[in-house]
Amino acid sequence: MMNDLLANVSSLVRHEADLARTEIADDVKKVGASFGTMALALVLAITGLNVLATSLVALVIWAGLPPLWATVLVGAGLLLIALILFYSAKSALQQIGFVPTRTAQNVKRDAATIKDTFNDK
Q: What is the model's pTM?
């Protein structure tokens, strides 16, 4: 009887460890996606500044704004877009919990069951 109980507890611990690994792997994937989005924001910011900035400044100058103010306007607009993307990804990253919550709940439930089993005997 005791051997069966110990075997069941051992099996339960292995299953909970597997669940914890799965939860952590899922969180790592979410972190990778958030970092990927942050990297995309950086690439877009650099690309935007290098490729479009000159033509946008020329367009604003053509519309009548002095060259200095055209440059400031275009630069500020591109940086604003980059900041929005960055903070969006940062917010998504902060919402990821690095604690395997399902595993913790299962372990508490299993511990209570084991305790009840020992108290009944």
A: 0.44
